[in-house]
Amino acid sequence: MDFWPFGKKKADEAQGEAAGAGGAGGEAVTPDPNAARNFFDRAQGVQDSGNYGYAMTLWLQGIRKDPTSVPALEKFMSAAASFGAQNPKGPTKDQLALFPGKGTLEQFLLHLLQWGSQPKEWSTGLKAAQAAQKLKLVEPAYWVGERVLALSLQDKKTKKDTFITLMRLFADIGGYDRAVQAGEAACRLDATDGKLINETRNLAAQAAMNKGGYEKAGTQGGFRAMIKDAEKQRQLEEQERGVRTEDVQERVIQAAKADYDTRPADPAAVTKYAKALVDRGTPADEKLAFEVLMRAFEATKTYRFKQAAGDLKLKAGRRKLREMREAAEADAGNEAKREAVAKAARQLLEAEIGEFAERVANYPTDLNLKFELGKRYAEAGEYEKAIEQFQLAQAAPGIGVQVLHQLGQSFQRIGWTDESEGTFRRALEVHPTPNDDLGLEIRYGLLVTLQKKAEEHRDAPAAEEALKLASGIAVQQINYKDVRSRREAIQGLIKSLRGG
Q1: Domain for residue 475, yes or no?
Q2: What average pLDDT does the chain have?
Q3: What is the C-alpha separation between 190 and 47, in angstroms, rounded?
Q4: DSSP string across 296-324
């Protein structure tokens, strides 16, 4: 639950401030960056502590003082995304009370609040972009509008009029590239609208001129702006294409680092920088990414950063173990190397158990994590712990059969024959393709269990069913594990049970 240090008096004061900052219907605002900075500094600290709801209101109160700040807008949306993941119903009454929506600036803030916590509701984002347009907030209008356009293009229900609205909004603020994109989307929905087609063509010509820098180059500072825009576009294109030449990788990393350096506790900046390092993937990159992620975890207490750092640690461990095994295989007579490999494998498995046990504790409803932990307990020979995790994971979507297979094997390992048999049978009942690799594994598991049951209890029906399973597997794949020797052993057992 968020802590709200705002009683009625505080809320009333905030609304009074709004009226004095263009909230009474004025279309122009006078930014006050110094006043805004106080809110922004507090917002960052609160966001780093994980109180996303309170951080949202502080970011918006700062934006009320300086609505031109796109960095603050980005950080607000980051806080809102985290808040929305925990509160899918949208803003609370306390939040809404601080942003009454009276006047264009307050409408801008209110729509940001509503859209930020429910980003899929892009129609609210469109209202925020339109309010920014009215206030002549060019960069915020473009920033919001660009994201709204991307969402609306993914929505099959978006109407022609919406795309036209976006087209004209972008055209009004000079965003001709996105205006053309919106116009083309509208044309696809109505290829008979000649007026719309001509308007879109004219915007495309304007976009081409802007791309060439014909307008900007002749203005004061225009050439610098043109180069800056070109650099930004190049960075985006490189990332989107996934080009991975060394120079491109270095530029992507440096751009991500520059962003990270300005906001080292911001989840988006941390994730982007760590991903850029991991994508290049040298050992030094992975070590640095690990440190970046762990610093973010320590600063924000957001567990997913520690989990990502743990993945890197385990990846490095697996790579080291693989190198040791290759060296041991190349020097087959070296007993010390073989022992070192065995020791490293045990240490890696212990590290994996530790990692997944911690993840299960942090994400108790994630059944896939319980399955992964169970597999590692089973590999370590801790079958009762494995059984506990597999039993909890049986309802995991998409992996139920795999869970049952592992559960049956674990019962088998501790000598619980009846439980093992019942589990393998359940697995075969729900597995649609018994002849695939997993189906073969399950049938073999049931075969082994029935063979043991027949041997221990002199159970002829169990032996006969085991023989049928062994014969079926041998027909499908004669060299599968030890199925031929088991088939012969079961034939001998049946003969002895018959007194022959």
Answers
A1: no
A2: 84
A3: 45
A4: HHHHH--HHHHHHHHHHHHHHHHHHHHHH
Clarify whether residues 207 and 63 are in a common domain.
yes
> How confident is the model at residue 309, as a pLDDT?
94
Token duo for residue 185? 């989307």
Q: Please name the residues in contact with 476: beta carbons below 8 A apart, sequence gap of 6 or more.
A: 435, 440
Q: Are 141 and 129 in contact (CB under 8 A)?
A: yes
pLDDT over 60 (residue 494):
yes
pTM for the complete prediction? 0.53
90: which DSSP letter?
-
246, HSE (Cβ side, Cα atoms, 13 Å): 1
CATH code (residue 343):
1.25.40
Expressed as residue numbers, the domain containing 323 is 244-364
Distances (CA, A) of 8 to 14, 51, 61, 262: 10, 21, 16, 36
8 Å CB contact between 94 and 117: no
> Is residue 14's pLDDT more than 80?
no
For residues 342 and 250, membership in a common domain is answered with yes
Sign (positive or negative) of CA dihedral 211, 217, 218, 220: positive
What is the reported pLDDT for 245? 62
162 and 304 housed in the same domain? no
Which of 331, 364, 397 is at the close of a domain? Answer: 364
pLDDT digits (tens, 9 = 90+) for 260-295: 999 888 888 899 999 999 988 899 999 999 999 999
Residue 145 CB neighbours (<10 A) = 26
- The alpha carbon torsion through 341, 342, 348, 352 (nearest 10 deg) reads 150
C-alpha R_g of the chain: 32
Residue 235 banded pLDDT, cuts 50, 70, 90: low
59 three-state secondary structure: helix
Q: How many domains does the chain have?
A: 2
Last residue of a domain, one of 177, 205, 232: 232
Per-residue buried b or exposed e for 33-64, using 16+ beta carbons within 10 Å of the residue's own CB: eeebeebbebbbebbbeebbbbbbbbbbbbbb
Residues 173, 137: contact at Cβ < 8 Å? no
Question: Residue 477 phi/psi, 5° resolution?
Answer: -155, 95
Is residue 29 over pLDDT 80?
no
